[in-house]
Amino acid sequence: MDRIVELILSCRYSFHDLSRVELDLRRPQTPRMNMPFELGLTVMAAYHNPKRHTWCMFEKDYRRVLKSLGDLAGSDVYSHNGRPSGVLREIANALVLEHRQLEMRQLLAVYRQVKGALPSILKKRGAKSCYEAAVFRDMVYAAQKAAISWLGIP
After folding, report:
1. pTM above 0.85, yes or no
2. Packed helices 84-94 and 104-125: angle between N→C axes, nearest 10 degrees
3. What does the domain layout of the chain look like in residue ranges?
């Protein structure tokens, strides 16, 4: 718990995608609640330090949030339709006040480069999932490399 709160407070922004909160059909049929729980922690942290942290909530269909988290009615929900281009579009919308605005073609180029690197990263790590710590770290590195290449971001 301490690590999660520390990570939240160490970042200026956090993005919370609730689109994968789905019912696991294996018994007992239960939804995974990690993302909504982390969003709750973040909302509380930002409530006490509004100038220090900004949170953004993403969902494939904004109506799901209205139904499942009615307490957040009136908060912005960035609806991405479950598509990578939609996610990138909505991240750009969430960060519209930032001084540097990136074009969709640039964002998609970075996405494609990381997606293309994923099979070799998985093979190198002997992994089946991109959610393993070492694989995720390698994906972050690939994204940083692509950002430097395509966006000129140091």
Report:
1. no
2. 120
3. 1-101, 102-154
